[in-house]
Each structure stands twice: as C-alpha cells, then as structure tokens.
C-alpha cells in the first residue's frame, strides 16, 4: 500500500503504450501503479512513475521488490518480444533459488507459459488481474466499428481467417491469420503479427497475391486461453501496417480483444478505407 493509503497495482510491463493506458485507468480507480519492466519494457520511454527494470535473470529480484513495495495485485501488459531463457543467462541469487520452477514455467507455447507463471505467482501470494478488470473500456465491441462495412468477399475472408486463427490457437501457436476469401495467406508464428504483415507486404510486392485479391486480418483469442493474459490487440500502428500490406478488413474477437485508443484507431481505419469488426460467435460473424 502506498504512503497515502492507496492500494498499489503491480504492472509487469512490456513495450508499447498499453502499460501506461492501464496505469492511468488504475489511477482513476484510486490505485497507485508500480511498474516492473521486462524485455521491451526495459527501454519503454512512455512509462512514467514508480518503476524498476529487470533482466530475465533477475526475475527473483523483481518478485522480492514488488513484495517490498506492498504489491498484491498484478497485471501483465505490453509487448514482450523475447521469451525468458533461464538456461542461457546468469541468474541472480534470488532467481537462482527459484530456477528449478522457472525452468518448468517456460516450457510450451505462450498460453502454457503464462498459465504456469500465473500458478507460480499465485503461490507467491499475488493476485493476478486481467487488463480488462482495470480498463474494461479497451474491450472491442461486437459488430462493424468503421464507416465502411465489409464487402461479401471480405466477409468470406474474415470467416476463413477466423476459422484458421481458432485452429492455430488450439495449437497455442499464435493468434493472427491473414486470408483472402479463397485461401490462407499467412499464419502468425513466433515472429508476431507485425512481422507477419511485413511478410504479406513482401508477398504482394512479389506478385504472389493477386492485384484484386482482398485480404482480411483476424486476431482471435485462443480457445481455452487464460483471459488474464495476452488478449489480442490492435492499435493505430496495426492499421498503418495493415494498409501497407494491402489488407482491407480487420476482425478481432468481440469482448475478448483490446483496441488501444479506440477513437484514433477507428479514425485511422476510416481514413485508410479499412473495415474493422468485432467478431462474435463461433464463425466470427460481424453483426
């Protein structure tokens, strides 16, 4: 608890603007944010407030610091480009004594890793919150969100991409797929959505994608995913990268995805002529 009596919220922060969005929402709820910055978060200049940066090898130090700061509730948010690799780092003593459990935590795909991590942190006395518990306004609403409605061809592409993203999520391999109405163009792997869209831009430049082939990007929550972590998200930069890749429609899981800066995202999409939808139901329909 802070000196002024406010409850402290621990934010395990990566890169991008989401950590500060969550922090500002926490402040509005009368909480004081405290940042433990990892990976991309170590150089995240947008983070303002009480914070410390930790290398993966000092994860144990971060846990002890958060406890010393009186943090009980934790939220994870922001981009993490590099997974923890405790086999190739020199850990601090506080991390070393936790190493056997740490090595078990980092096995598997992202969702498995985060589930393992959540169980460990709960055993350390922390209460893990989802981003949407702090900032529910970030959740994507259902339906067409832009001025333009998807064409029949784009709707078919959204449906195909959504079905593929769901299958991909079953494997805990990724959350995003790009498709036309006839075929899958790209599926997200460890490179992430941004690199996948750059790859699609290269495909189009190499004429591997038809000039009139309309593409849709879908970012979907994984079946059975722990909704406290790593919800699919889009921001203004997503719209910029989609436009560069020749993508004309974007769909996200309604109520289970985040739109970072809703008004700015929709304004940018309208300017670019993209259709953006919150997809509901098993078939990812945009009603």
UniProtKB/TrEMBL annotation:
Ranges for domain LpxI C-terminal: 141-276
Pfam family, one: LpxI_C
Membrane-traversing stretches: none
Domain LpxI N-terminal: 8-138
Name of the protein in question: Phosphatidate cytidyltransferase
Organism for this UniProt entry: Fulvimarina pelagi HTCC2506
